Amino acid sequence: MSEGLTYRLFEERDLPGLLRLWEEAGWGVIGEEQWREWFLDTPHGACLIMVAEDARGEVVGQEIFTPARVSVGDREVSALRLSAPILRQEARRDSVRSREHPAVALYYAAEAEAIAQGYSIVYTLPEHSWLPALRRLTRFRTAEFDCATFCLDAELPSQIVEAAAELYAQPVVAFGEEYEALWRAACENFKGTCGVVRRPRWLAYRNSGRVALEVRRRRDESLCGYVAVKKRGGLIADALAPCTQELTGVLAAAIVYLAHARRDGLAPTDSDTLKAMATPSLRPALGSLGFAPTDYKFAFACNSIDETLPAGRVAPECWYVMPGD
Length: 325
What we know:
Largest sheet: 11 strands, mixed
Oligomer: single chain
Distance between the termini: 33 Å
Helix content: 25-40%
Shape: globular
Number of helices: 9
Structural class: alpha+beta
């Protein structure tokens, strides 16, 4: 199957075929308006969309790269987040151990285009099962993170109540100027760390379908952080505070809000469990709040495609990363 495929950039005429591909590959039904909103109207312009076309001119695969901005120390660069490839059944038969596999071939075609367009980094949070292929077939550097969980239906431990005592959480009404200031403060305290730039428009785009909570100080109602949780499954998709030490209180205030909402019959998520990706930035806070480890593994991978940006400078251990990035 892979021998007869052509890999190229998305063209407008491909859209009907891509919408059919989504449904045929088991990803569900998506309308044209929703597709355009997700992939053409992002805060940083249209996604880089690579398609695989067979000899008959039919689209049999796609790989989408969402543009983002990444802070690398004092430098800000253009980046792309790689999403999971979507392939027709017959295009999945080749071994993923080969560079000729459509998913791998799509990536290399996209990488060449990304370099030509001036992007510096490609990153992804793939299914854990993809890590061996990423390590073996590409220049991605990879990392694995544990999963930690907290039961929202249990009695709140005293350490959570104490950590949240001077704070309160409430739903975000709008990501405004305060969030810009929050990001700048975080950059000052996370110097030397890579991270997706979290400006208001990006936050609104990435967190529009999530339970987004802002955390404020009771004494003056100033913003000290936010937490965004997926409605399905209860995964913490994003969280930020000015520094790692303040993440504990921010997470605690969000837990108090979510637990009380469940008890009042207003549960904003379908899960009684809050889940988190235990990165080095989050792990201390999760441990102190009573999150319990599970055997699930998250994955992260990144690749510098910019000759002026050494691979070691953007290695996984250098990142402040969240599942929703």
